[in-house]
Amino acid sequence: MSADRGSSNSLRPLRAARTDSSLGTDGDGAANAAGTGILRRLSPSALAARSGRARFPLAAPSWPESVPRPPPTPELGVNYDTDWSRRYPVRLARAMVLDNVARPLARVLASPLIRGNEGLTDLEGPVIFAANHASHIDAPLLLSSLPLQFRHHTVVAAAADYFFDRRWKADAWSFLLAAIPIERTKVNRRSADLAAELLDDHWNLVIFPEGGRSPDGWAQTFTGGAAYLAARTGCAVVPVHLDGTRHILPKGGTGLRRTRTTITFGTPLWPDEGENARRFGARIEASVATMANEASSDWWTARKQAASGTTPPLQGPDAAPWRRSWMLSAAPAQHDRDDGVEWPTRKG
Amino acid sequence: MSPRPGFVLEVDRSTPSTLFWHGERFSLERLPEGSRVIYAPEPVDPLKDPVAAIRSALSHPVGDRQPLPSLLRAGMKLTIAFDDISLPLPPMEQPDIRQMVIEQVLDMAAEAGVDDVALIVALALHRRMTEAELRHAIGDRIYDAFAPNGLLTQHDAEDADALVHLGLTDQGEDVEINKRAAESDLLVYVNINLVAMDGGHKSVATGLASYKSLRHHHNPLTMQKSRSFMDQHRSELHSSNWRMGRLIAASGVTVFQIETTLNNDTFPPAFGFLQKREWEWGAKDRLGYLASSKALDRTPARLARQIFHSVKAPHRMTSVQAGEVEAVHALTTQHVWDQQGVEVTGQTDILTMGLPYISPYNVNSILNPILVACLGLGYFFNLYRGKPLVREGGVVIMSHPTPWEFNPVHHPSYIDFFEEVLSETTDPIEVADRFEESFASDPWYIHLYRTGHAYHGVHPFYMWYWCAHALQHLGAVVVVGGDKAAVHRLGFRAASTLSDALEMAEDVVGRSPTLTHLHAPPVLMADVK
Amino acid sequence: MKALVFERNLPRFAASRVASAFGSGRGAGIGPLQLLDADQPGLPGTDWFHLRPLLSGICGSDLATLDGRSSRYFEDMVSFPFVPGHEVVGVLDDGGVDHDGAPLAPGARAVIEPVLGCAPRHIRPLCPQCATGHSGLCGNVAFGALEPGLQTGYCADTGGGWSTAGLAAHASQLHAVPETFSDEDAVVVEPAACAVHAVLSAGIASGDTVAVVGAGTLGLAVVAALHRVTGAVADCTLMVGAKHPHQRDLSDSLGADIVVPPDQLARAVRRHVGSLVLAGRLTNGADVVFDCVGTSESVSQSLAMVRPRGRVVLVGMPGRISIDLAPLWHRELSLVGAYAYGDEGPAPASPDGDPTAIAEPRRTFELAIELVGAAGLGSLVTASYPLERYQEAIAHAGAAGRRGAVKVVFDLRSRKGTTR
Asked: Is residue B309 part of a domain?
């Protein structure tokens, strides 16, 4: 008898080699041949054939063989021109999307707990926000959680090879995040100049010094990009720690999962007199590490360890992968939220 | 109030009807006056602080073993093997026992700085577990730390490179087990002892073995000589496994066995009436019974199955012991008997049983006819110590719809076994002689076992051998309310109602027979005097 | 005398097509088939003889024609009005001459090879197919001295088996019926010949695994033929997919090795051959598969269970079906038709000198007559009806499997050829 008699004998299991189909007929055995007549003429294949034969001027012209073609100018990647996304009408549209779509969505997906933003109220721009990076959700989340004075005048440095390799992607990210392309594998003059120019123009910048998302939850080594730009333009660097985003949209995973996150803004840092970019970068990283420590233990322990220089490294312990993962999952996920004080009511 | 022990009820005129399971349904049947009904003991209180109990057991092992922390050191090779999806039944609420135990072991391993750790699902020739099932059993923390790195593997008994042959026992039985497990500095086994058959040397000798090893004790003759296979001391199945286990230990494999027992609190509160004695059903229970049985009667089988298989049981850990295999298992067996033992005096002519929807081999799947036979004549029939509940030549009456339905993903070889083998013969010995070899070596079944979620090609044979003792012992087997064609293919008789079944049984055992009903689940063990 | 006549009548044709959707053969009552008074058909020539039918079978192709489901390909090869019935055993009241030229006494029984090739149509020279003995493949079935007609039973000039008035049979079509044969034995000679021809043209080698899909009359005849006619292949494994219990019993008794329900056939082949499954097909499979059903599902199923470079033989008449030919191309399969009969052999001399191998060309019908005698295929006739109850007869034939029957025939013996 058929396996599971009630169902049909069809044998199209999703992973064909892993299940024992009942070896009956397959669906295409019963399909009817396409009919003739009007149905055939309106079928997608017929329409495609007819439109494919469309000629100039309806379709784009072909180039005559005798005329030399100019070399193609690369317009994607680092060379993508993002100026249009900083014009006023586009900024307005982006602000509306950010405030009315992204922020509520972030509240639902990530319910971010924002700390340390008191230190930003008196800060005069422009500011470089340097954050750790664990998930693609980081940039939109951080951008929509910035204080109002920065939110609508901020660009996000995004990897040119990943976000700007196709036209539609470049357009999308430029609009939604005010992204600018940054070359992450080698030093590129153009992206550095662009970033510096924007900072001089009083645009704030969000940058992820790790250069990419963390593969296992522990941070990677910070590159010197943020420090270099700060030294060149004299801007403040605000270190930011994002906690919990790796669960929302994990690297390599699919699907969104609601998780509570914490966004901690650190105290703004300026490069000291004569301090080179590398040392400044180390200071930024130490600040983020302290905030990470604060998220996994508590503020006082973090301060004490920061003072004594014993903050556990952002890159995690030097141990087998399972132990690194084990330590990460053992930490308590979130602090208790105190959503408001319960005032006693007066009775009688 | 302390839990009451199990007991045997004598049915009289004022006894209310008795609950009978019938696959995904249940009904109340009137048993004739003078019948007996065996009730399981009430659930024993679980441990208040299981995590502390586990930690204590790991630090104070029994038998010839050091405490676990002292056995762990940096640079060693540690393997943790654990029981697969067939335990516990029904699947328990999170956190699963395996999650609790393995987390403690891994905490100790992390403290000691052990880097080379591997986890193995000891499934022998059972099917591989899905990601969801693994996450349920060991928890997200362990899964996410081990599975992405390929350190959580499911035992593959057909991968010659992953097996190692340790030698022959003095009875010439091959001992061939998982290579990683055998070559580790320490092998920790995490067991859940649901019934008295589980645990002891069987954990490693069967759970991590290959077909070459298993056929020495998974065969009709061994099963016929196991009376019963739930009683370690009178079971040829266990003697063989013990020989193998001792050889494994002698080959230098250090096994740190962690065994746990559960109470028999099998049903969530909504279905609590299934566990209670019928005359103690309050208004809520009766209402619950009526509502659920009426609803289930109207529910299509597939949906009912889904509902039942999603139910997680509230049974909890009652004991945990760790250390050397045999010492640990002696304690575990005692705990199992403490929870499940019922004293029964004398055998009976007719044994009735209502079979539920689940067996160890169809978790999240269909109870096909072969598994019905295995559940009734294998497991339930053998829940005895001493003498079988039924006399020789007696009759077993089982109640189950026995649908002619198979899950093609989990049980592909069962379909062919049912069509090809059982249509020729139902004698276990003939089945083994003529057909076992070709099913065991069929490349397609091996492929499905290794890469899909199918039981091994030879597994339906083992299900049939599990019935060998009963088939030899009984005069007839009757199935009530089952698909007639399927029941006949199994070689049993089909009856539509219990009274018809009793009529049929009387043809075999004579007029006015004695009748005993096994009120299980929850699981019990009959100590037959 | 009465005859069932199939007339060209479009509305009734359409009606029967609709009715057949509810089940094969249901359209007989309202279709273009009518029971009319008929006279003996005239003889188109001196080498034609009157044959008075005793039994005439109802075939799958007849049912398809009556239901309006047969392919439009055949439209040019029938002439209206015609009397159906090409499986006939009858009596030569006035005697005759058989295909070998041997005289047949008046009152002798004969069966006919219904194909109307060059010989009955007086076409000289013979077409290449008729010249080599493959009269079934004759291309002149719509030309010559007769009205177009694929076979007796589709031709307006010859009459057909479903009548008490008789039909006209050409000498080349007549085969004498052995004395030992019952009428039932004789009426299954024609389907047996189809089976014999299919089996002999399939190229089965020793030790092959052969699967037969469908266990109606043709399927069972194929099963019988496989073991008896192709002697050298005695060590083949024969696996049959039979839907109904009586079909399974008959398959067993006719010599099948493994008989299973049709949806289990692929599994059984897989188990026997030990192959894997990829893309819903067996990676290895049966060497030859006979499809005796002819639907989309059965052809797809047959293609799915045959080994690479294997052969699927279509024995039952198919219609217009839609199948995916990618597997056929990829695994170098052959999908061949097997139609009717003609001459068989000679078979290449087998190394072990098998005496039953065909040493010289023999007519399929002769081999079929031997097969029917050896296998007792007359028992396949399970129901008979008089002409008056033709609607029941055709409905029964349409539902034969379900109703426990195999071959349903018209019994024309109670009429003594008197006019009514």
From this structure: no
